[in-house]
Amino acid sequence: MQFIDLKTQYRKYQAAIDDRMRRVLDHGQFVMGPEIAEIENALATYVGVKHAITVASGTDSLEIALRAFGIGPGDEVITVPFTWISTAEAISLVGATPVFVDIEPDTFNIDVDQLAAAITPRTRAIMPVSLFGQMPDYDRINAIAAEHHLPVIEDAAQSLGATQHGKQSGGVTTIGSTSFFPAKPLGCYGDGGALFTSDDTLAETCRVIRNHGGEKRHHHTLVGMNGRFDTLQAAVLLAKLPHFAEESAARNRIGARYSELLNGVCVTPTVAPDNTHVYAQYTIRVPNRDQLGERLKAKGIPSAVYYPKCLHEQPVYAHLNLARGTFPQSECAAAEVISLPMHPFLEEKDLINITSNVKQALHAP
């Protein structure tokens, strides 16, 4: 059993993927070839924004967004401690300081009730994470941000395809960022990412930064980076994107079925009102997480832990002096979460097998 079944996906779309990649090999424009503009237009339409700017990775997309706002040393950016390192890493890479706000225990997303208290005169942006495949309450987040004249950067690395009030993840804030890492809901066959915005000036600034700060060849107006998306990876996305809405719906359906089968067995994911969920990871909470993982492994069922240690507990952020107990909900989640196999091609028999083994493992002495 595959934790994320990319092989089945490739077999289903093999003709289109191979054809798209072969076209790139034929024309030879491996950097910023015509597929880049094509996928950017398609992604912008899908998300419902004016501009999509593809970049080399999801981490680069966050850093480029921060750079585009001129955020740097002495500035603070608010985010959460229960996420992958890239979220805070991008803040540190521009010289700013991450300021953490605890999460809600049910959605794993930022506790908006604690957001305003974290804002200081040094705050320059708010960067919530749409963790595991659904969005936090962006109506409230955007309202707080507007009151303090702050941009909101959605880290939508795991939630592309999810919606809130019918609006697509990536398109509900000042700028949205996502990742096309192969395991993401919409993944390429390497690293990649994108930014989404309807702000013309901001979009142009992001485009300049991703290409060494150059508005045109040999004319550099900003300190930029080599953050371009590979044309071959754009070709892969162009073959996959027509199937993405169907895959997102399948993820939503499979996640709901998982929760039905595990009702009363463990703590299952909560889907917030007016949200859809793409379950980049189907994540449950159990007190004996490691034991469950070992028992599932013995039955041939893979699992994974996202994330066993909070960011404020990582050695790289020891200088922030945030003792254990500072963010109790994040720390509790880090000790209890475990993710089960999740992809659009799981069948009912797979779900029955997985959940039956979860029940047996949790009830065994």
Characterization of this structure:
- With 365 residues, the protein is of the alpha/beta class.
- It has two domains: 6-242, 3-Layer(aba) Sandwich (Aspartate Aminotransferase, domain 2); 244-363, Aspartate Aminotransferase, domain 1, CATH 3.90.1150.
- The chain has helices spanning 6-27, 34-47, 58-68, 85-93, 138-147, 200-210, 231-240, 244-261, 289-298, 328-336, 348-363; strands at residues 51-55, 76-79, 97-100, 123-126, 153-155, 163-164, 167-168, 175-179, 193-197, 214-216, 219-220, 282-285, 337-340.
- The strands form five sheets. A four-stranded mixed sheet has the order 1-9-8-5. A three-stranded parallel sheet has the order 3-2-4, covered by helices on one side. Strands 6-7 form a two-stranded antiparallel sheet.
- A hairpin with a 2-residue loop joins strand 10 (214-216) and strand 11 (219-220).
- Helix 1 (6-27) packs across helix 7, helix 2 packs across helix 7 and helix 3 (58-68) packs across helix 6.
- The chain starts with 5 loop residues before the first helix and ends with a helix.
CATH architecture of the largest domain: 3-Layer(aba) Sandwich
Strand order of the largest sheet: 1-9-8-5
End-to-end C-alpha gap:
25 Å
**Could you say what the CATH topology of the largest domain is called?**
Aspartate Aminotransferase, domain 2
Can you give the mean pLDDT? 97
* Secondary structural class: alpha/beta
Rg over alpha carbons: 20 Å
Structure annotation, total helices? 11
Task: Kindly state the number of beta strands.
Answer: 13
CATH superfamily of the largest domain: Type I PLP-dependent aspartate aminotransferase-like (Major domain)
Tell me the strand percentage band. Answer: 5-15%
The residue ranges in which pLDDT falls below 50 over 5 or more consecutive positions are none
Number of domains: 2
Order of helices and strands: HHEHEHEEHEEEEEHEEHHEHHEH
Helical content band: 25-40%
Shape: globular
CATH class of the largest domain: Alpha Beta
Q: Sheet bearing the most strands, described?
A: 4 strands, mixed
